[in-house]
């Protein structure tokens, strides 16, 4: 359960969800015709411990990521959002944006795997333990970023804009922001403050891409909590780490402030790309039906 000022590393609390998500990306990428591939996800999992390596090797029978309706849905969802945000960054680069900020970067390896234009600077913000783990794994494998990657060890509850500027961020230059897998771990007032900060730091021509999730129905949240009491795994513990409450809708928020915003719901995005979309009502096994992806551009 979240508490005020709580902390974590890559294997605990909010940090551990990054490994669960990386596992979904790795498994989804192995499927024929996958929407997206992230070859670095497997590297992180094998470095994280034998239990994650065993999952990749098919040696964990009954795991929720591989043997349940939830797992199939979650894998497709992770591939979809990875593809959406990869395309977003490619389009930002084509628009001559050379400054990128990834908030709560976790195990995002886009600085290493996307074809960045010369002169692109990628700022990655996260807790120092998470950044240390990622750097050690990738450098240990001899991998090098394809852009000027700059780590910003900062908690988003602190003065991260100052840390960003101290590392060379230029608020007068257009920026491509990424807010992926973050908002559900923030209370509503913190989401509002985050949006306000992005707006204040964004020069004309800037873009922001956001993943958001509608409030989970009480019945679904209760089902997660009940399952969490019966069995311990990242899926069931997850509901205790999020703030399941109403938040500002990102497309509406940025549109009201002069940005041009577009929103797509994940089930619609999957159907547009010829992939199976969640069937039935959103619930404990169909979280992706509540998720939407937003891109906004400042004129």
Secondary structure: elements and pairs:
Blueprint (H helix, E strand, L loop, with lengths): L12 H17 L9 H10 L1 H7 L12 H26 L4 E4 L7 H4 L7 E6 L1 H13 L7 E6 L6 H7 L9 E4 L8 H14 L5 E7 L4 H13 L3 H4 L12 H6 L3 E7 H7 L18 E8 L1
Parallel strand pairs: 1-2, 1-4, 2-3, 4-5
Antiparallel strand pairs: 5-7, 6-7
Helix pairs in contact: 1-2, 1-4, 2-3, 2-6, 4-12
Keywords: Methyltransferase, S-adenosyl-L-methionine, Transferase
Function: Exhibits S-adenosyl-L-methionine-dependent methyltransferase activity.
EC number: 2.1.1.-
Word description of this protein:
- The protein is of the alpha/beta class and 299 residues long.
- It has a single domain (69-298), classed as 3-Layer(aba) Sandwich (Rossmann fold), CATH 3.40.50.
- The protein has twelve helices and seven strands.
- The chain has a seven-stranded mixed sheet with strand order 3-2-1-4-5-7-6, sandwiched between helices.
- The termini are far apart.
- Keywords: Methyltransferase, S-adenosyl-L-methionine, Transferase.
C-alpha-based Rg, rounded: 18 Å
State the separation between the terminal residues, measured CA to CA: 41 Å
Mean pLDDT: 89
* Total number of strands: 7
CATH class: Alpha Beta
Q: Give the domain tally.
A: 1
Main sheet specs? 7 strands, mixed
Strand sequence of the main sheet, in spatial order? 3-2-1-4-5-7-6
CATH architectural label: 3-Layer(aba) Sandwich
Features:
12 helices; Rossmann fold; 299 residues; alpha/beta; 43% helix; seven-stranded mixed sheet
Q: What does this entry show, briefly?
A:
Keywords: Methyltransferase, S-adenosyl-L-methionine, Transferase. With about 300 residues, the protein is of the alpha/beta class.
């Amino acid at each position: 359960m979240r508490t005020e000022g709580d902390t974590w590393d890559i294997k605990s609390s909010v940090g551990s969800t990054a490994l669960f998500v990386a596992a979904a990306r790795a498994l989804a990428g192995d499927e024929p015709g996958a929407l997206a591939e992230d070859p670095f996800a497997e590297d992180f999992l094998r470095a994280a411990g034998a239990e994650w390596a065993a999952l990749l090797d098919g040696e964990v029978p009954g795991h929720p990521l591989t043997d349940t309706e939830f797992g199939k849905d979650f894998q497709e969802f992770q591939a979809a959002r990875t593809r959406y945000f990869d395309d977003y960054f490619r389009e930002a680069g084509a628009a001559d944006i050379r400054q990128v900020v990834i908030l709560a970067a976790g195990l995002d390896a886009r600085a290493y795997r996307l074809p960045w234009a010369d002169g692109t600077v990628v700022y990655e913000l996260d807790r120092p333990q998470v950044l240390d783990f990622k750097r050690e794994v990738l450098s240990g494998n001899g991998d090098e970023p394809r852009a000027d990657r700059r780590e910003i060890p900062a908690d988003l509850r602190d003065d991260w804009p100052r840390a960003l500027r101290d590392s060379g961020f230029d608020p007068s230059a257009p920026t491509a922001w990424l807010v992926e897998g973050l908002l559900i771990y923030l209370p509503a007032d913190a989401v509002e403050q985050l949006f306000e900060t992005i707006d204040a730091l964004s020069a004309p021509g800037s873009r922001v891409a956001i993943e958001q999730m509608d409030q989970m129905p009480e019945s679904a949240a209760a089902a997660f909590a009940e399952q969490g009491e019966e069995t311990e795994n990242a899926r069931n513990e997850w509901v205790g780490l999020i703030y399941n409450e109403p938040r500002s809708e990102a497309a509406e928020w940025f549109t009201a402030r002069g940005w041009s915003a577009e929103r797509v719901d994940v089930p619609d995005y999957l159907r547009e790309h010829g992939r199976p979309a969640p069937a039935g009502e959103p619930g404990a096994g169909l979280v992706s039906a509540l998720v939407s992806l937003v891109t906004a551009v400042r004129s």
